[in-house]
Specification:
Helix content: 55-70%
Shape: globular
Structural class: mainly alpha
Distance between the termini: 17 Å
Largest sheet: 4 strands, mixed
Number of helices: 24
Order of helices and strands: HHHEHEEEHHHHHHHHHHHHHHHHHHHH
Strand content: under 5%
Strand order of the largest sheet: 1-2-4-3
Radius of gyration: 24 Å
Number of domains: 2
Amino acid sequence: MGEKVISHTIMTSFKGMISLCLALLFVFSPKAFAISIPDEQKLGKEFMDMIQDQGLIIHDPVVRKMIKTVGRHIVETLPVQPFHFDFNMLNDQSFNAFASPSANIFVNRGLITALDTMDEFAGIMAHEVAHAASRHVSESIDRAKLVTMGSLAGMLAGVLIGSVGGGGDAAQALTMGSMAAGQSAMLSFTRENETEADQKAVLFLENTGYDPRGLLAGLTKMRESDFRGIEGIPDYFKTHPGTGNRIAHLAGILADYTPPENKPAPPENYDFQMVKYRVIGLYSAPDAYIDKINLKLEKDPDNPALNYGLGLLYARAGRLELGFSHLSRALAADPFDPMVLLELGRLHIRNQNYSSALSVLEGVSTDKVMGDLAVYYRSVAQIETGSLNAAETGLKRVLATKNPGFARANYHMANIMSQRKQAPMSHYYLGIYYADIMDVKNAVRHLTRAVETLEDEKIKKKAGNRLDEVRGKAKKKARQR
């Protein structure tokens, strides 16, 4: 299966999934032919485990806040659901969002960078929620009756992984069995599913305060980005058929649309442009965007989002002076913006100006969204200045939250323990770090050494449990090959 074909699949996935949101608004009635809720929950967990094992989820607090705010605002208007809705961003540049089994909603970073307004983003999120709430996912799975839970989860994850970082081999390994049987053709949404979800999404968006015309704009941009069209994609990858017809249908529905007088206000959230250019600046290829953003800045030189994104890109390209310059221009629009201040603090650390980093990051450490990241980077600066006790306190605070995305905090804890000549604890934290980043060999080596040398029985037990977990996952992966 070619990598380009799989990449198109994920893009196509986004197209139809915009219909996912409003299906539940009308009537939630589980279809008699859908797989059972417990089976879908099991499949959803297996799917999530595979996605997490591949390290595809980007744990960015700003993006996560935006996605969850929009998603929860939509879900709150629905009847009681059999599933817990969860929302994540994937490190995938394709223009796509999709719902997996058990109401896990995924947004690719490429989707966020391709859109321009919160209404467009909300329209697509509403579509995904509608598919999940209407159990369209389980209906399509039920049509593939001969697919086992394990092989289906592998096929779904494989299709997704295919466009990420050249992951064609991983995708083929996960998808080969079920696709060879031709059963994946049964996983597509029907045109009726798509029409139903699109229609309900329009009505649902009105009740959330977002403009439903954003759905039409988002679909249109998706269609324009798919410059090769979808005709060459095998049928089993056409999970969201009829995009052109859907656009025409929605355009007819919205032709005379006027916002209702009592339309609710959407929730407060980050400025979409700032989030968009944060995603571009932190996760997209600098060479692909630096010139484009510079051209936009010629027309709008004081635009904070453009300067923010460009500053991040220059920093990642190693051009720190230009990074400082553009981040400072972004900060001029709002001297207390925690998103910009945090990145300036990180740049000071890279520039080995630790006193300035500590000063900047201190002001962000209490922010509700960026605070944990600020504390983490402040701890990194404190290690460099020899303030090991303060750094340890900060890192322990971050680790105690159990929020994803802080694996490297364990690496820095190991550094602290090493400087204190506490080798057993250094091995323990290094083992946890390598386990979190799925480096099995190093995780086993350091956790084994920790178990052998630790004197604290409580910590030794934790190390042993984590060692067993790592070995268990390694055996499971070996069996799947």
